[in-house]
Amino acid sequence: MERLWLKSYPAGVPPTIDDTLYGSLIDLINEAFRTHAARTAYVGFGVGMTFGELDTRSRAFAAWLQSTGLRRGDRVALMMPNVLQYPVALAGVLRAGMVIVNVNPLYTARELEYQLKDSGARAIVILENFAHVLEQVVANTSIESVVVTGMGDLLGGLKGMLVNAVVKHVKKMVPAWNLPEALSFRAVLKRGESLALQPVQVGHQDLAVLQYTGGTTGVSKGAALSHRNLIANLLQSEAWIQPALHNTKRPLPAGEPITVVCALPLYHIFAFTICALLGMRIGAKNILIPNPRDLDALVKEVRPHRLNIFPAVNTLYNALVNHEGFRQLDFSGLVVSNGGGMAVQAATAQKWLELTGCPICEGYGLSETSPSATCNPTDTDAYSGTIGLPLPSTDVVMLDDDGQEVPPGERGEIAVRGPQVMTGYWQRPDETARVFTADGFFRTGDIGVADERGYIRIVDRKKDMILVSGFNVYPNEVEQVAALHPGVLEVAAVGVPDDKTGEAVKLYVVRKDPALTEQALISFCAEQLTGYKRPRQVEFRAELPKTNVGKILRRALREAA
Asked: Which CATH architecture has domain 53-202?
């Protein structure tokens, strides 16, 4: 195949990366702890944790995990927002030779039970704010060890106690829970300090992370990401940002660590790779933002720091450029703004550039690609309206319905091949076979057009997936919940444009009960679905459009919306 995009590569970006640089993520972690021991790795609530402290704590956690009887390859669920405990647990699970199962902490009991059962997780680390949800389902899962932590557990002394007290008693953010066998995170670390971490043999093809995503069937599936997948993607991302890091117009101070704003949740693959893993590789300082919707708190957290890298989704960028406190910050050190998860709007990109002087470089990827597949060059000030060029060592083609590559300028399904593409869906060989071509391309379900320079533009979506603030929502799941309401006869869920979230979920419903109201159905769905999946609009109809075999035509409803 002709890689037209290589002619458009910025100076200093190689066409390929060497994914054999590390034998596993354990090698990467150990190197980071050895090389950057004295540097600050993470800051949470104003309290810093060095790479050396992260080394000590994650080693203790890894040793404790091994002492419980868990073995190499066992799955450990992490259900926390961006607090200091997350990177400790992340590094600890990997160093123990085990597999991370990233869990959205806002999941309902139904969603949590499904993911824990499907992954077969044997242990979970969970923030106490969400322990009441786990209590409802833990008996139905394979979970043997529960570790519960409070927001302030690693902040130390008076500050830690104060944060926990405020969260628990003042803000009343911790509902009552009862998990008799649960251990505290601090107790586990204390126990692990006296244990020896047993070395484990982990290689490129071993599983590192199960990143759950939806599918065309609406059934959530674990994208099986190997150590090689994640090593490759962090090295691809590192290579791609080099022009920005060495930009003579906005030079970084020599010897000063790079500071990353980690406002995206670490349980999302974008932040997991770009903030956590790449941060280890380059010895970066990550400023952890537990709740990016609290813009005042975000500004307070980042104000003391010289910001260099700011990954975010369009909704966050847009909110920040309109926040007076954020507008007063110093952006002279900002050199990389990664836009991903959802389409970046031209108006937002322009406002961000005017405010910060740093362009948003929009990229594209999926959980299945660890996640980055393409990105715009980081050395340009122009908003391209595209998802950019394929990253080093990545092939991207547009395929027609017969699986044949189409020439530049013609529409086709975006298909990706590279070392960052998942090994498959966890325990679903049929689903895996469905999305891979014979020559190893992953079919994304998005329709794109590539121009003669190699730049790609997304023009449609083959799948019915709805994209809400960078999170995938699959209509089947929403429809299954809504259909459980006794007043619903037929239902279809589609995505409709939304100024704040890019898209929002809308239901089209044929009523069984004429008295059913929009608010009643929305409230019913809210009990079973986490926030971003909940319908925002309901339209009642006498009938829904269908094919001649009776399948509801979601596309026709989208077009009507």
From this structure: 3-Layer(aba) Sandwich (3.40)
Q: DSSP characters for 503-543? A: EEEEEEEEESSTT--HHHHHHHHHTTS-GGGSEEEEEE-S-
Tens-digit pLDDT string for the chain (561 aa): 789 999 999 999 999 999 999 999 999 999 999 999 999 999 999 999 999 999 999 999 999 999 999 999 999 999 999 999 999 999 999 999 999 999 999 999 999 999 999 999 999 999 999 999 999 999 999 999 999 999 999 999 889 999 999 999 888 999 999 999 999 999 999 999 999 999 999 999 999 999 998 544 457 899 999 999 999 999 999 999 999 999 888 888 888 899 999 999 999 999 999 999 999 999 999 999 999 999 999 999 999 999 999 999 888 998 999 999 999 999 999 999 999 887 788 888 999 999 999 999 999 999 999 999 999 999 988 889 899 999 999 999 999 989 999 999 999 999 999 999 999 999 999 999 999 999 999 999 999 999 999 999 998 777 788 989 988 888 888 988 998 999 998 899 999 999 889 999 999 999 999 999 999 999 999 999 999 999 999 999 999 998 665 668 888 898 888
Q: Is 334 helix (H, G, I), strand (E, B) or coil?
A: coil
Cα–Cα dist 381/358, whole Å = 7
Separation of alpha carbons 416 and 395, rounded Å: 6
Q: In residues, how long is the chain?
A: 561
Q: Domain boundaries in the chain?
A: 1-24+227-463, 53-202, 466-560
Q: Smallest Cα–Cα separation from 267: which of 96, 136, 126, 431? A: 126
Tokens linked to 170: 């003042």
Q: Which residue type is seen at 496?
A: V
Residue whose C-alpha is closest to residue 166's, from 152, 186, 153: 152
CATH fold match for the domains 53-202 and 466-560: no
Q: Given the structure tokens 């354990």, which residue do they identify?
A: 26
Q: What is the homologous superfamily of the domain 1-24+227-463 according to CATH?
A: ANL, N-terminal domain (3.40.50.12780)
Q: Give the single-character DSSP code of 384.
A: -
The number of angstroms, rounded, from the C-alpha of 7 to the middle of its chain's C-alpha atoms is 31
CATH number assigned to the domain with residue range 466-560, chosen from the 4 options 2.40.128.20, 3.30.300.30, 3.90.1200.10, 3.20.20.450: 3.30.300.30
543-550: which pairs have CB atoms within 8 A and are 24 or more residues apart? 543/490, 543/510, 544/490, 544/492, 544/508, 544/510
